[in-house]
Amino acid sequence: MKKLFYTVILAFMAVTMLDSCLGKNVYDEYKDWREKNDEWFSKQEASGQYTKLIAPWDPSACVLIRWHNDQQLTKDNLVPLLSSTVDVKYRVRLYDGTPVDSSYYLTSPADSIYRTMVSQNVEGWMIALTRMHVGDSCTVVVPYQQAYGSTKRSEVLLPYSALIFDMKLVDIYKYKAN
User: Fold this and answer.
1) CATH fit for domain 30-172, picks 3.40.50.2000, 3.40.50.2300, 3.10.50.40, 3.40.50.1260
2) Which of 27, 35, 147, 178 is the most exposed place for a label (fewest CB within 10 A)?
3) How many CB atoms are closer than 10 A to CB 172?
4) Tens of pLDDT, residues 44-65
């Protein structure tokens, strides 16, 4: 039994090593796309149009954010926690403007509303949402490290894709004030 276990482990390791030696890895395969996304994100960061938000739980994780509303009008509104369920309206596109997704196609739980627990989204959303007040509208630029990283999500959403979210925090679901 022990011999079979070690044989299976060794076979798996051999196949994994052979695969990585023979084929291109994702990092190399998407090198040009990754570099374009990195360059574009750096330009946005240097443009002065955005505020850089750093995740309190990871100083290496950040997003860029630009509010579209007067924050003085929403400063006393609720701010979600990582464990909060929120109602959000959003559109997301790639750095080159290619549309990726939108809540405006949704009809449930309400028209154009995406309902989600903050912690069940990409890290970039978690960073942004935990700094937004209910009623805030903003553009959030998420580097690929805080988005889907090296994972290909669709034919449009390639590995190493920086994402641009236009989003509005509509409500914190089922929050009841005392």
Assistant:
1) 3.10.50.40
2) 178
3) 19
4) 999 999 999 999 999 999 999 9
